[in-house]
Write a structure and sequence with these properties.
By secondary structure, this protein is an alpha+beta fold. It contains seven helices and 16 strands. The chain has helices at residues 19-24, 42-55, 66-78, 148-160, 203-214, 226-231, 259-267; strands spanning 2-5, 8-11, 27-35, 38-39, 84-93, 106-114, 125-134, 164-169, 174-177, 181-186, 189-192, 219-221, 234-239, 243-247, 249-250, 254-255. The longest helix is centred in the N-terminal third of the chain and has 14 residues, at 42-55.
Length: 270
Amino acid sequence: MYQWINQQIKAQSEKPFNARAAKYGDGFFETIYADGDNLFLFDLHYERIIKSFKYLYFNEANLPTKEALKNTIIEHLLSRPKEQNRISLHFYRDAIGFYTPSSNDTAFDISIQRLDVPKNKGNYNIGIYTENKKYANPISEIKSSNALISVLAASWKAMAGIDDAIILNHENNICEATASNIFIIKDKKIITPPLRDAPIDGVMRRFIIETLLEKNIIVIEKSISDKELFDADEVFLSNTIQKIQSVSSFGNSIEYGRRYTEELRILLGL
């Protein structure tokens, strides 16, 4: 584990794993794509880390500076072959106690996993997970360590034999996929659920919206019903690892195109 102490990131290898944080899901994580020592969209990840500290009442004095955190990750990468990697950062409240923690002090772990080049699957089938809904609140925007709805939806899609599950919010509107944000295209209009509908404030989602706006292409943020999902011309998912994944079908009855999605991929440089 690591801590930010006296303006330095220091390894605290003698300290045991914090079982309390795991027991209560008291933390958040970030997943960063690295190509060699290039950390993709790191600035946007860091901005979400700041927001996560605020929402979880973490001690902001324990938040490493952007430069220090980036340099620590790169130091880990330099000890490995130059390849593509998934960087996982896990920040958690480093405290004892039950529901009431003894402090808001914070620590974090870094893990690195070699990443086979993610390929967009040609046939990508989705369904809607309906057993549990996601409620909108500030922590619905961050990658909370308590990710049970995503875990259950992913388990359901595996049992259903499909590629991904779409999660609904408490108003039965489309929220997100198990590990991705969702966009639909209708009549060349790009639409994605607003943050008030409980999706993760995805780094790739934000990159897509902001980059397209710079090119005078507006992404409409509005609630999406299941009917609008069924009637869409195209559907795609986004996250920092896969970038953009075209959806080819919903269940056994609906097929989607992908031409405009592929044009957007090229326009975005992905």
